[in-house]
Amino acid sequence: MKKEKMQNLALTLSSKIISSYMHSEPLQVENIPGYEITLYDEDRALISGFDIQNVPLKQGFYADEGFEYFIDLSPQLHHGVKYLILKSKKTDKEILKLLQEILLVALFSVALIAVVGYLLSKMFLKPIQNERVKLDKFIKDSTHELNTPITAILMSIERLKKENIDEKILKRVDISAKRVQKIYSDLTYLLLESQHQNIKQLDIRKIIENELSLYEDLALKKSISIHKELQESTLTIDEVSAQRLFGNLISNAIKYNKHGGEIKLKLTADKFSISNSGIGIAKEQQSKIFERFYRANEHEGGFGIGLDIVKRVCSKYKIEIEIDSKSGLTTVSLVF
Questions:
Q1: DSSP SS3 for 325
Q2: Spatial separation of the C-alpha atoms in residues 133 and 151, rounded to whole Å
């Protein structure tokens, strides 16, 4: 850059010398800040400026320990000028200034990278932080959720040891045991999902009937009536996934139903639907209910993994999920 700049300045000076000669004007050399200008004739006699030693009088750019020079032969003896020498002043200050600029740019760059890095890391770590909070909540909820039925089972067993067998106690033990069984089954499915590979054509009506039998007592406890219209239907799927798919839908229909409500199940050759008379699902929540650990209703039990399992199974076996919900009626449909 310095070389090109000095070359351009030298050519400009030479053109002015030639122009002044052509117009019969006296030789005048303007000062250029930061440079010294020397003019020699063809015998190296000084015409103007300061005598310069140890610089070859050849066209081109030269430099020594402290200065840069540009020798230009363009004047071609106009006004007797053979050599035009442009000499820069001491470069130490320029180098120092350049180093200062480099240092400032480097510091600014480092600061900018640090700020951008901090903002990006905060942005990228936010989802991880949210997941960590969800996981922490899940662990606390699971401890509480598992502890309740287990405590009930243990207390009931202690009473059975001391008293005659009571039907209510047996029912409570049965319901609590089934709740623990469902929690265990869901967690086991999530952990061992890749191992469920025994895919075959299953009787869906039979699967639904079996799952209903597991949750009948839970429905009875809330005085929920179940209406079913189940036709013959088959689906190619592994049995564990089918059980978790229909079991979670039935469990949710009971869990989020009102006391004394009703559930309607309908099965055709290519579609299954289950409706409940609960409070419904708000529009803004319908896209979130299939997220793991998400719970639309904090007052009901559960960890928010049931519908995540439903979504996983449907995605794996290309089953379409449809939700239609309003106050007092929610319908979830599976299209095979």
A1: strand
A2: 27
Taking only the tens place, the pLDDT of each residue in 238-284 is 888 888 899 889 988 988 888 899 999 999 999 999 999 988 887 77
Instruction: Render pLDDT for 13-41 as a digit per residue (tens, 0 to 9).
Output: 999 999 889 988 898 888 888 888 999 99
Query: CATH 3.30.565.10: which residues of the chain?
Result: 193-335
Cα separation of 266 and 228, whole Å? 6
**Residues ≥6 apart with Cβ < 8 Å to 200:** 236, 237, 238, 239
Residue whose C-alpha is closest to residue 289's, from 274, 299, 271, 304: 304
Confirm if 303 and 293 have CB atoms less than 8 A apart.
yes
Concatenate the DSSP letters of all residues of 58-93 into one string: SSEEEE-SS-EEEEE-TTTTGGG--EEEEEE--SHH
- Quote the DSSP letter at residue 217: H
Give the 3-state secondary structure of residue 326: strand
How is domain 193-335 classified at the CATH fold level? Heat Shock Protein 90 (3.30.565)
Does residue 298 sit in helix, strand or coil?
coil
Q: Could you write out the DSSP letters of every residue in 140-203?
A: HHHHHHHHHHHHHHHHHHHHHHHS---HHHHHHHHHHHHHHHHHHHHHHHHHSGGG---EEEEE
Residues β-bridged to residue 332: 274, 323
- Give the three-class secondary structure for 227: strand
CA distance 212 to 251: 9
Q: Identify which of 22, 26, 28, 29 has the alpha carbon closest to the alpha carbon of residue 86.
A: 29
